[in-house]
Amino acid sequence: MTSDSIENLSTESRTFAPSPEFTAQANAQAGLYGEADKDRLAFWDQQAEALIWEKKWDKTLEWESPYAKWFVGGKLNTTVSALDRHVTEGHGGRIAFHFEGEPGDTRTISYAQLLTDVSKAANALTSIGINAGDRVAIYMPLIPEAVVAMLACARIGAIHSVVFGGFSADALLSRIQDADAKLVITADGGFRKGAAFALKPAVDEALKGETNVAQVLVVQRTGQETAWVEGRDLWWHDVVDPQHSTHTPEYFDSEHPLFILYTSGTTAKPKGIFHTTAGYLTQVAYTHKVVFDIKPKTDVYWCTADVGWITGHSYMVYGPLINGATQVIYEGTPDTPHKGRMFEIIEKYGVTILYTAPTLIRTWMKWGDEFPNQFNLSSLRLLGSVGEPINPEAWIWYRHVIGGGNCPIVDTWWQTETGAIMISPLPGVTATKPGSAMKPIPGISAKVVDDKGVPVPNGHGGFLILDQPWPSMLRGVWGEDERYKETYWSRFPGIYFAGDGAKLDEDGAIWLMGRVDDVMNVSGHRISTTEVESALVSHEAVAEAAVVGAADPLTGQGIVAFVILRGGVEHADGDVLIKELRNHVAKEIGAIAKPRQIMVVNELPKTRSGKIMRRLLKDVAENRAVGDATTLADPNVMKLISEGLKSSKDED
Ligand code: WTA
């Protein structure tokens, strides 16, 4: 037994250095690390110059742990940096968005057009009584109006709270109440899995609760029959279209709140993470430039996240628009009308930079190589990953099958709370290791510490912490100051604890090992669920795996694994494959990590942002009634898994 907080068991020896051609043209060169280390605050001052300032800041940082103010005394308007400036600089004709609706309808929106759309929407919001500081809930499908609505709020200083369109009426209501929103912006519905779904009824249902919502602004997307509350509901086109096409921006303080975004915590009540203006915008623009190597004149960038997620906020709306990027946005699901839909879109628009999540990469792996192979993906030059640890095998598959073996991969670690990327390779600098996010980006300080807060040496594991304030950090949990301090700043006083376990390899590269509440304790060894999952996925038969620690009278916890097989792999009940997989894990990590039980499933319970809800699998593995599954993308999944597990119990 070692004294590590989390044991470091698996090893990965492959590395992939950027090509000299990539390095030669890269936005970020190796010298950036030294520059930031020399004078961190001066470095951030320099990055803040990427924004358009009405009044420059007096002081870079005011830090009274755990409260930060960045670029103190500055004044700016978010949308001037994201829109007006491009038009002024002569790039109004550049395409901001290629929108692809799921049914195949498309829209092409230039920067000039987007500025007009946002100006009209801003005028509309003002005309219906929305003022700076008011909260606006946005509950929409991924259509251009969702982006316009966010930007229109930012333009007038209203605070948006985007609620993912897949959430229930209850989830919407609690978020409306918590932020005390005055207005809801929604749509009649959207398109998903080949059919129109309705959104407005969920808003109507939510608003039966106690709220201060006076108006509902409704975008017509599907044209379906929509119930109407006279005096409260307004069609977007009736209110927005007739407005003036210009809008004179007002300027706000650097620390003016920009948005609230709810994220689930360990308790049932979601946390309203809130972000402010200048620091957030500075870091999203900087990271988007150096991590994605964006070249606004030539790149076509596609971040596949929904606006309901922080990735959509930072890397589809604010970062790329400030940098003047041309983007693709897609409304629908990856398998509609066929499993090659996303590859078809890459080919159609000549996408050069793709940013997606491991869950989708593993889904593609499961479907099989024939789908990406049908399309020309040679326009791609950089690939990104976010949201959870990417298993080395999924990384290698992504590199070869999607990237054609010659795109750098940036595995980006960050959180709703951090606002922007914190740990990631720099694509023209870092020799990457599959499965590692490598090291903090220039300007950021992150460490792996033991349970006393002391940094661990290379080759050891522990807790991931951030020991210096950063510009895009959350400024609090909306209305819950105690919770802010308790959740993030109490484990190690004065230091931000991210909730993630991580290890440093022999070279000091960082390997994320999932939430520490996902760490298992088997016979006194702390083993990360991610490590066992990676070992399973490194077997050729496995596309995806989820692992939980279930109470075990003998070992404290026993490892229970749920696996999805790759396309084409046959599995007969009780067959040798299960044994082989258990032995494979033993070989990869050690006998201690051998799963007690492995079950083959067709689907895993995931949230809409793709995170596996291990809590639910744990309920099943421990023979409990399955807990609250309302945030699952597909609520039926748990029923199938529970039934399957019962019948597989005696096998092993
Ligand atoms: C996990 C998403 C490993 C991590 C931007 C974090 C990751 C949580 C990675 C935040 C990564 C995100 N490697 N784990 N590259 N990126 N995570 O708030 O556990 O939805 O704490 O933000 O996702 O999730 P959130």
From TrEMBL:
CoA binds at residues 192-195, 311, 523. Residues 32-81 form the Acetyl-coenzyme A synthetase N-terminal domain. Residues 88-476 form the AMP-dependent synthetase/ligase domain. Coiled coil: none annotated. Acetylated. Deacetylation by the SIR2-homolog deacetylase activates the enzyme. ATP binds at residues 387-389, 411-416, 500, 515, 526. It comes from the Bacteria. The keyword Calcium does not apply. GO terms for biological process: acetyl-CoA biosynthetic process from acetate. Residues 1-21 are annotated as: Disordered. One of its GO terms (molecular function) is acetate-CoA ligase activity. The modification N6-acetyllysine is found at residue 611. It catalyses: acetate + ATP + CoA = acetyl-CoA + AMP + diphosphate. Pfam families: ACAS_N, AMP-binding, AMP-binding_C. InterPro entries: Ac_CoA_lig, ACAS_N, AMP-bd_C, AMP-bd_C_sf, AMP-dep_synth/lig_dom, ANL_N_sf. Mg(2+) binds at residues 537, 539, 542. Residues 531-611 form the AMP-binding enzyme C-terminal domain. Keywords: Acetylation, ATP-binding, Ligase, Magnesium, Metal-binding, Nucleotide-binding. Belongs to the ATP-dependent AMP-binding enzyme family. This is Acetyl-coenzyme A synthetase.
